[in-house]
Amino acid sequence: MHQYSNKQIIHIVFPILFSLLMEHLIGMTDTAFLGRVGEIELGASALAGVYYMAIFMLGFGFSIGAQILIGRRNGEENYKKIGEIFSQGMLFLFLLAAVIFTLSQKYSPVILKSLIQSEQIYEATLKYMDWRVYGFFFAFADTMFRAFFVGTTNTKILTANAIVMVLSNALFNYILIFGKFGCPPLGIAGAAIGSSAAELVSLIFFVLYTWSKVDKEKYGLFRFTGFRPKLLARMLNISVWTMLQSFLSVSTWFLFFVAVEHLGERSLAISNIVRSISSLLFLTVASFASTTSSLVSNLMGAGQQQYVIPLCRRIIKMCYLVVTPIIVLIFIFPTLLLRIYTDNPDLIMSSVPSLLVMASSYFLNVPANILFNTVSGTGNTRSALFIELATLVIYILYVFYIILHLRSDVAVAWTTEHIYSTFMVVFAIIYLKKAGWQNKKI
User: Fold this and answer.
1) Distance CA 213, CA 425 (A)
2) DSSP state for residue 414 in the 8-state scheme
3) pLDDT tens by residue, 379-388
4) What is the tens place of the pLDDT at every residue in 288-315?
5) What is the three-class DSSP state of 153?
């Protein structure tokens, strides 16, 4: 093992980036189609989408913990253990999906009713979630395959999988939302069914590719030897913190949208559009952050801790080189982007200030996410959770003060992103300077 070159980093980053961008197009497709159905559906899809994502992050958080372990074993060249981690992880995620599906069916109506003010938005959100919950089974399994490919730094297949997934979603959405080829127009329910079906297509693709192309003997894949409580406990010792951290992070994002909904249906529609464009930037940052976590874990496994901080600095610089031109384009052509989501001129002009505020936050978001994933990559996921918790407490207090107390304009509400990123950077730097992470064993 040696210091990773820029070329090696790019070879890992860009398939992850492309796959995440393609996945973002799923949400973007939903938003673009529903923006032509009505503002109620547009606002409801924002709340329902973030609500679904908050629950999904429990499974995704587990897969991030599994990815850290896979990366560590890959760095140690202990390849057979990777298959054991994969199979136990898949079993756990299936059981988790079944539990979440059952609980969501029973309690989501109660939770959403208590949080959403508008009756029309509540009904549309519930209609979406009634169908979207089926996607948990497929989406959770997808995350485990992604953990395997990222943890072993074999990320090229993620690109092909993402293309298949997004094309499936666009086709299903077009048919089901608007009622084409003999199907009845299902509106927001059609968007939910289409997204869940696209996740199933993605899973089938991963299974077929892994079975036919991956060296199953080398990694010990598809050899399920029964429930291994000790191994699962070791996985959960890492993953439970990333599960909680991921869930809490998006849950507070959901609370942000609930707070914005109290400013009115127009403010919620604006925030949904801005959120969708923000996701384009966030997923770019997330691809570099995910790469950081995997490479740090591989370096730690190979006993090359001295390369961790220099690697982190280089990835931050590389991420800025990709993100800055996108931010500049948003500032130069804000209305051009907004027209993708709506043909309402008033809504477009009302959205511009919020869009610009959001875009400016990414100058802080880049180091925040990469430094945070460096902390996770060292294997100290408990410390990462505490960093997230401390940051989120400040974030929530700011959200309640700015939105619910002062009832500020929606553009001012988006300064919450600056607050979140600033404190994330500060806490992560303190950890990396002060904590004894170099000898962390997992």
Assistant:
1) 40
2) T
3) 777 888 889 8
4) 988 888 788 888 877 778 888 899 999 9
5) coil
DSSP-derived secondary structure for 66-131 = HHHHHHHHHHHT-THHHHHHHHHHHHHHHHHHHHHHHHHHHHHHHHHHHH---HHHHHHHHHHHHH
Q: Which of 35, 36, 51, 41 is nearest to 123 (CA)?
A: 41
Straight-line distance from the first to the last Cα atom of the chain, in angstroms, rounded to the nearest whole number:
19
Q: For residues 264 and 301, what is the distance between their CA atoms, to the nearest angstrom?
A: 51
- For residue 30, give both structure tokens: 């939903």
Give the containing element (helix H, strand E) for 117. none
Reading the block at residue 25, the tokens are: 């197009």
Q: Tokens 């598809």, residue?
A: 222
Half-sphere exposure of 118 (CA within 13 A, CB side): 23
Residue tagged 């610009």 (tokens): 356
Residues 6 or more apart in contact with residue 426 via CB below 8 angstroms: none
- Mean pLDDT across the chain, nearest whole number? 84
If DSSP codes are grouped into helix, strand and coil, which group holds residue 116? coil
| Close Cβ partners of 171 (under 8 Å, ≥ 6 residues apart) | none
CA–CA separation, 394 vs 399, rounded Å? 9
Amino acid at 4: Y
Written as six digits, the tokens of 122 are 């509540």
DSSP per position, 201-227? HHHHHHHHHHHHHS-HHHHTTT---S-
Q: What is the residue type of 252? A: T
Per 3-state DSSP, what percentage of the chain is helix, strand, and coil (rounded to 5)? Answer: 85, 0, 15
State the residue for tokens 């923006």.
Answer: 35
The residue type found at 132 is R
Q: How far is it between the farthest Cα atoms of the chain?
A: 63
Q: Is 56 helix (H, G, I), strand (E, B) or coil?
A: helix
| Distance between CA atoms of residues 2 and 382, nearest Å | 28
Token pair of 401 as six digits: 């003060």
pTM summary value:
0.73
Q: Name the DSSP class of 333.
A: S
